[in-house]
Automatic annotation (TrEMBL):
Belongs to the eIF-2B gamma/epsilon subunits family. It is found in: Cytoplasm, Cytosol. The keyword Protein biosynthesis applies. Residues 632-816 form the W2 domain. This is Translation initiation factor eIF2B subunit epsilon. Residues 487-501 have a biased composition (Low complexity). Residues 608-623 have a biased composition (Acidic residues). SUPFAM superfamilies: ARM repeat, Nucleotide-diphospho-sugar transferases, Trimeric LpxA-like enzymes.
Length: 820
């Protein structure tokens, strides 16, 4: 492995090649499981070293001169790993650690980084747990990004993907949470559309096909490397837009607002090389086995081990605080034992006991001081340090951590067994099970697939807390401070004391639970951790306390993802036969986007027909027959806020870009769906003159006031959110306008000709959508699906008048074209 010769040189800040690692998946399922182990996911063992080791090795090979680690939880564990590894001894200027105390999302982490004011040049961002395994050097990505900027000065980000060599559904590196469809220019690789939704078909805007010198190509489900080369402006955009909480939201927002903000995003597609971003448990297992199979060479166990110098478990470097490590980390921070590589990809770490009658087939790693007894069959598995595997046990495609005891005649397939687990005789464990720390599985127990067994409600440490940063002047960790788990990151900072006995430093607290003897046996200990609506056999709720209520509300939006810890897509609640009682205090993972799921997914448009809505409203409100409707009582608080925003923008003559940013910031504040957002925009535009009485000496009626606001700001608002090439948006605009006109015949409905003509002449709406929408409306009237009330006749007559004029104008244009 080539080592950079100048990594410790005193580069000027703006010249340093920087990489930012966000060490969190922000997936509630993964974080919940991780909270019952002793390590964050980025430090889980992979063939004798922590997962993060492989990423740091890659970055050093790539000539990266500064690595910034952003950690939302497990700050003490991650920082202890860095301080007790050889990284700071060999490369003292390489790694900078920043705890993000209150971060709930990637966007929050980048906002914290922006506040540090340390990024002044382009940087590589590794997100999705920040652990990338690749045998390619990444420094060329800086040059690629700079070339994109030369071609397009508005380029702020270059996303990195890997072309899959086979059908993505069959490729082992593909998991459901990587579903992606990209539309880009085949020549420049500029992104024009970006979707992570599961759709039967994807629509390409006609505008794209008509762009000069643009050749459109579609990338369907490339392998997402979770790598982005960013300009410093990216941090400012995350800070200014509160609705950007993920990379997906950021990219969609930039592409959508391109005409307003002027920013662009490009992509780069690797066609060769090994790439794997480890952000779920399935990919964690795949990374472990791929490294054993040497697909990631030169990132292989014996080379990685040879690069680590022997070191004690306590760092004595006078420039760094001395931190003693508890037993959970001895396997990582103690002496790095040499690894012997044998044929059939068999790796032996230091001194091991291997019975001559055991059967070690292929792709196996056996850790230091582990004992493999007679008749044991191992295939494609990792055995950690100080483990005992009993006679005639078969282990296949599984990962066994440290200090694990497995009895005789056991069968373990495709599972993860964490530290200090005891598995007694004749146990069978099916695929994708996780046994968390200190679990005991009794004799003759059979665990079905997809089970997560825990032995404590959480594993906390008395010496640390995520919110406490280790000060260089402190020689010992802090006392009486508990590490918050993944659902308690925003808890208030707990008090601490510097004076503490060394005994208390190494202690840990494990909240005991009631064991389920029916599941783990009478001689076992543990219970199942279940997530409602993850798998058919997991229907128990996650237990939580009253203190977590605020966190759960936020998690509904960001952390209770649509994918479980293994990367499988979770079936929506509305498609499952689950009861909807509110009496149980449960975390229901698919409800984080409940506002988007109020209507069936097969509905052809974003919103129901507004004329249907108006019928329902009129039938439920008797006062609607008199025409005296108080619109303020009908609209939501969010819509009123949009109206107030537009009013302020009109009176203060704000720039359009600032208005768009402010409206986008309202979306996460009020937690509205895209459909509700678009509907509120339409209603606010046409109700603004009506409710706020915007007028001057020359404006004495609704139409004049509306035209004033449309000329100055609101027509541009509609153009931004209701694209003229998007049928769904245009029909939504017409439905919204129709609903308002029917509720306010005086003064809005009677002005429908003026309004539609203005929208048509200013290219806010296209005639094809007007004619299509009107035709559908007429069919409902003919089929008696829509009844015209007497007071509505004036509106429909004027609407018909405009449509006939539009049709005649179109036929005249056709005749003129024929004559030409």
């Amino acid at each position: 492995m080539v080592k950079p010769t100048n990594i410790n040189s005193d580069y000027r800040e703006e010249e340093r090649l920087t990489c930012v690692l966000v060490l969190d998946t922000f997936n509630n399922y993964t974080n919940e499981i991780v909270s019952h182990t002793s390590l964050p996911l980025c430090l889980w063992p992979v063939d004798g070293r922590p997962l993060l080791d492989y990423t740091i090795h890659t970055l050093i090979r790539s000539g990266i001169q500064e690595i910034i680690l952003l950690a939302t939880s497990y700050s003490y564990e991650i920082r202890s790993y860095i301080m007790n590894s050889h990284w700071l001894q060999t490369y003292p200027k390489l790694i900078r650690f920043i705890p993000c105390k209150e971060a709930r999302s990637l966007g929050d982490c980048l906002k914290d980084l922006e506040q540090e004011n340390i990024i002044n040049n382009h940087f590589i961002l590794l997100y999705g747990n920040g652990t990338l395994i690749t045998n390619e050097k990444l420094n060329n990505l800086f040059n690629i990004h700079k070339e994109n900027i030369k071609k397009d000065k508005n380029c702020i980000m270059t996303l990195v993907y890997r072309q899959l060599d086979s059908n993505h559904f069959e490729h082992p590196s593909y998991t459901d949470d990587q579903h992606l469809c990209i539309i880009r220019d085949a020549n420049t690789y500029r992104l024009y559309d970006y979707s992570t939704e599961y759709l039967d078909r994807y629509e390409i805007s006609l505008d794209l096909l008509e762009k000069p010198n643009v050749t459109i190509e579609t990338l369907y489900c490339p392998l997402d490397c979770h790598v982005a080369v960013c300009s410093p402006d990216v941090l400012h955009l995350f800070k200014d837009n509160f609705d950007y909480s993920t990379i997906n939201e950021f990219v969609k927002g930039i592409v959508r607002d391109e005409e307003i903000a002027g920013h662009t995003i490009y992509s780069y597609l690797y066609e060769t090389g090994y790439f794997l971003s480890v952000h779920n448990l399935r990919l964690y297992m795949k990374a472990t086995f791929d490294i054993l199979r040497r697909w990631s060479y030169p990132l292989v166990p014996e080379i990685i081990a040879s690069m680590h110098k022997q070191q004690l478990s306590t760092i004595t470097n006078p420039t760094l605080p001395q931190i003693k490590l508890n037993d959970s980390y001895l396997s990582f921070y103690n002496i790095c034992y040499p690894i012997i590589y044998d044929k059939h990809n068999i790796y032996k770490q230091g001194d091991i006991q291997l019975d001559r009658l055991s059967n070690i087939q292929q792709d196996v790693f056996i850790g230091y001081k582990s004992q493999i007894l007679s008749g044991v069959c191992l295939r494609s598995s990792l055995i950690g340090q100080s483990c005992i595997i009993g006679k005639n046990t078969k282990i296949e495609n599984s990962i066994i951590w440290n200090h694990v005891q497995i009895g005789e005649n056991c069968i373990i397939k495709n599972s993860i067994i964490c530290d200090n687990v005891v598995i007694r005789n004749n146990v069978q464990i099916d695929k994708e099970c996780i046994l968390c720390k200190n679990v005991i599985i009794g004799t003759n127990v059979h665990l079905n697939q997809h089970m997560t067994i825990i032995a404590s409600n959480s594993i906390t440490s008395t010496n640390v807390v995520d919110e406490i940063e280790i000060d260089e002047d402190i020689s010992a960790p802090l006392k009486n401070v508990k590490r918050s788990n993944s659902k308690q990151r925003s808890s208030s900072t707990m008090s601490s004391e510097k004076s503490v006995s060394e005994k208390s430093i190494s202690l840990s607290i494990e909240e005991t639970i009631t064991s389920n003897s029916d599941l783990v046996g009478i001689d076992g200990f543990g219970r199942q951790l279940s997530f409602i609506s993850t798998h058919d056999d997991q229907t128990k709720p996650i237990e939580h306390t009253d203190d977590d209520d605020d966190d759960i509300n936020d998690n509904d939006k960001s952390q209770l993802n649509a994918f479980d810890a293994w990367g499988y897509r979770i079936e929506p609640i509305e498609n499952r036969d689950l009861s909807h009682d509110d009496e149980d205090n449960e975390i229901k993972p698919k409800q984080y986007r409940l506002s988007n799921l109020k209507k069936p997914s097969d509905q052809p448009s974003d919103i129901q027909s507004e004329d249907e809505n108006s019928e329902i409203d009129d039938s439920e409100d008797p006062s609607s027959e008199t025409g005296s409707i108080n619109e303020t009582n009908d609209v939501s608080e969010f819509q009123q806020e949009v109206i107030r925003t537009l009013e302020r923008a009109y009176r203060q003559k704000l720039h359009m870009e600032n208005i768009i940013v402010e409206l986008n910031m309202l979306k996460p504040t009020y937690d509205v769906s895209p459909t509700e957002f678009d509907r509120s925009i339409v209603r606010a535009v046409f109700l603004l003159p009506f409710e706020k009485k915007i007028s001057n000496s020359e404006t004495t009626n609704y139409w004049n006031s509306l035209k004033l606001t449309m000329d100055q700001i609101t027509q541009f608002i509609l153009k931004n959110y209701m694209k003229i090439t998007n049928e769904q948006s245009q029909i939504s605009l017409l439905n919204g306008l129709d609903s308002i006109c029917l509720k306010h015949i005086q003064p809005i409905g009677e002005r429908i000709v003026n309004i539609l003509n203005y929208l048509y002449e200013n290219d806010v709406i296209d005639e094809q959508w007007i004619l299509q929408w009107y035709e559908n409306k007429q069919k409902k009237i003919e089929n008696n699906e829509l009844i015209i009330k007497p007071e509505e006749k004036i509106y429909y007559d004027k609407l018909k008048q405009f449509v006939e004029w539009l049709q005649n104008a179109e036929s005249e244009d056709d005749d003129q074209d024929d004559e030409d």
